[in-house]
Design brief:
Elements: E1 4-9, H1 14-24, E2 29-39, E3 44-45, H2 52-62, E4 66-71, H3 77-93, E5 98-100, H4 107-117, E6 123-125, H5 133-142, E7 146-152, H6 168-173, E8 187-193, E9 203-211, E10 214-221
Parallel strand pairs: 1-2, 1-5, 2-4, 5-6
Antiparallel strand pairs: 2-3, 7-8, 7-10, 9-10
Length: about 220
């Protein structure tokens, strides 16, 4: 049986990284590449606010090609949808057969992705969909995934969590009602090590700033 060529929506965070790991275990799948939207003005990924250089380092660590989709800031719905149409053209040129996402349980997000891809001829895959997030978070940590919280919504999680490692200590300290995987937008992460990578990335945390109602912790490559 020929493996299906799958491109993965890559956020730089734990959910997309763990999705990649799951796809890598499937002999019926060939992960052909990653695609990511980037804020063109600041040269950082959306919400996770990760530097493009580190995004590219992740792709190299995965041994996969990376398609960067630059978006203007601010970005209108029209401009975003135009960029997505360009992505579909690219995926067809790459002979993609399916697209995978790391969504966990938000029905509206999944419905939006299905709407975007309707009529494209591409199969949509959601390998982590419906998994209990407490067990999923534990599986990620036990499996060797290492990540740092790069963005925190202070309306849902205290700002002091920005910059913390995604580990069992973090899970134990999360306030009641906060999803262990941050699926309600409580936090976003940057993955720097794990079984989906050929080698870990050496990084350190930098400045913590508040911007547009969110708290961001910069992640930097370790010099040398």
């Amino acid at each position: 049986m020929t493996a299906r060529r799958v491109w993965l929506s890559w956020s730089t965070g734990k959910d997309s990284a763990w999705t990649l790991y799951q796809l890598q275990q499937d002999p019926a799948v060939e992960v052909a590449g990653l695609f990511t939207t980037v804020n063109g003005q600041f040269q950082r990924t959306a919400m996770h606010a990760v530097r493009v250089a580190l995004l590219q380092a992740q792709a190299r660590a995965c041994g996969l090609p990376l398609k960067i989709i630059e978006l203007p800031w601010p970005c209108s719905n029209h401009r975003y949808e135009q960029a997505m149409r360009g992505l579909l053209t690219f995926l067809h040129e790459q002979q993609a057969e399916a697209v995978a996402f790391g969504d966990l349980f938000l029905e509206d997000v999944r419905a939006y992705r299905e709407q975007q891809m309707a009529g494209s001829g591409l199969e949509l895959r959601f390998p982590l969909w419906g998994l209990p997030t407490d067990a999923l978070a534990e599986a990620m940590i036990a499996g060797g995934l290492q990540a740092t919280l790069t963005c925190v919504d202070p309306r849902k999680l205290p700002a002091r969590f920005a910059g913390r490692r995604f580990d069992r200590g973090l899970l134990a300290d999360l306030p009641a009602g906060v999803d262990p995987c941050g699926e309600h937008g409580e936090f976003h992460t940057f993955v720097h090590a794990g079984p989906m990578f050929r080698q870990p990335l050496a990084v350190e945390t930098g400045e913590v700033v508040e911007r547009d109602g969110f708290v961001f912790c910069d992640v930097l490559p370790v010099k040398g």
